[in-house]
Write a structure and sequence with these properties.
Its main location: cytoplasm. This protein is α+β, with helices and mostly antiparallel strands. It contains 12 helices and 28 strands. The strands form 5 sheets. The protein has an 8-stranded antiparallel sheet. A 7-stranded mixed sheet has the order 2-3-1-4-5-11-6, sandwiched between helices. Strand 8 and strand 9 form a beta hairpin. It starts with 5 loop residues before the first helix and ends in a 10-residue tail after the last helix. The structure holds guanosine-5'-diphosphate (GDP).
Length: 525
Amino acid sequence: MNNPNLKQQVDSRRTFAIISHPDAGKTTITEQLLLFGGAIRQAGTVKGKKTGNFAKSDWMDIEKQRGISVTSSVMQFDFAGKRVNILDTPGHEDFSEDTYRTLMAVDSAVMVIDSAKGIEAQTKKLFQVVKRRGIPIFTFINKLDRDGREPLELLEELEELLDIESYPMNWPIGMGKGLEGLYDIHNERIEFYRPERYEGERFIKLTDGEIAEDHPLKEKSIYEDVLGEVELVREAGDQFDLEKIERGDQTPVFFGSALTNFGVETFLETFVQLAPKPHAHKTDADEPISPYEEEFSGFVFKIQANMNPNHRDRIAFVRVCSGTFERGMDVTLGRTGKKMKLSNVTQFMADTRENVEEAVAGDIIGVYDTGNYQIGDTLYEGKLNVAYEELPSFTPELFMKVTAKNVMKQKSFHKGIYQLVQEGAIQLYKTYLTDEYIIGAVGQLQFEVFQHRMLNEYNAEVVMTPMGHKIARWIDPEQLDERMSSSRNILAKDRFDQPLFLFENQFAMRWFADKYPEVELKSLM
Ligand code: GDP
């Protein structure tokens, strides 16, 4: 489609994922961002555990019971002339594959850290997933209104544990009850926490890094301390380096308190300036597709079934990579060559789902799906004929044999399994000769979600038998000899009929490798 404003629209997009260890404040900060964008009118709309208003990210019962976000949700708002798309990610590491696929659909990531806790287990794991993706990472250190750890110590820990350079964009002046404000290094100003205690202004500009001589803050010893610390990080710390930020080798660090809405707007203002606009995406062709390419294209990075139990719908989340999406347009589904009409498409606002009329690169649209789409599918307009890069799968490390409890319910059992596999909720294998079902997961919770959803959505009670096997390795089908299967391994095939072996441990795998040195054992990601 010819859209004269395409470039301008694309350049205004900022699409990012938000990650954190549970309870660091991801939901609270998301809510504040949505408030600034006018997408919601009151706090408590995104996750109202107490009021019973569950947000989009808590679609499933299991999430409500556990209070964790199993799936990712998408929210959009406008701020300072930019259109911002936030993709929420599941905090739990068991769903890191889902997180990774979400990261494939964004151009940057924001990591939220609790200032009292520093880098927590999940932060570290999720960070590693982001790092693999090589996109810019912004850090927000939260809960300054409480007593937390010293900023220098937090930055040191961040650099050491995550192996990334950090650059403080601002510096807390006090914390907890003694929180006075932020020394904003980037904007050369001070932002007061309680402006009414001083001269009433929230922001005061600095001259040569200093506040006016007669300002009451000057008398506080904390102010001198902060000047000293800022000087120290200026001299001994890393220099601000946009190229490093773009490569994900340096993270700009912001401090604040999401709950008291302090420092969040400053973060957002700077974020929309520094965060990258939509990038070109790699395809099977030599050249990546430019986001300014006129013909529409995008890929499915997530499929979510039964978001609304009343409607039993299924939605394919599509990251738009080029062109302009228009409601009712015809596209080709690359994998099958089938023509699809995109008439029933939603966009994700915080408290409503609205019909989307137009979207460009960077935007996420939700296409109603009756079972046509799979994760990784490319959609394109006209003759574009591209296939976006395959979305990587993680090598599962947990396996279960699975059967239907009630043999009369085979049909719903099969339907459920295939749909959940298409969604990427679980991986499916069959024993090579006997076709018994084996499901594979990266984390134990995936099995629980699987079992729960099979029962609730497909009315199929499943029996799962844990297997001791932890290692899956694929082999070239041409090298396969069925005699390689022994009591020390299980020969299976994946859903594309590719052969693989499951081993109980490293010894069993090494024994195999020694016996068949010519056979290459391959893992996924
Ligand atoms: P999530 O699990 O990362 O989404 O975390 P939530 O946003 O649900 O926050 C977890 C808890 O921390 C909630 O009780 C919040 O009210 C609280 N919280 C979030 N941000 C702050 C903050 O800046 N200061 C304080 N004191 N509490 C906060």
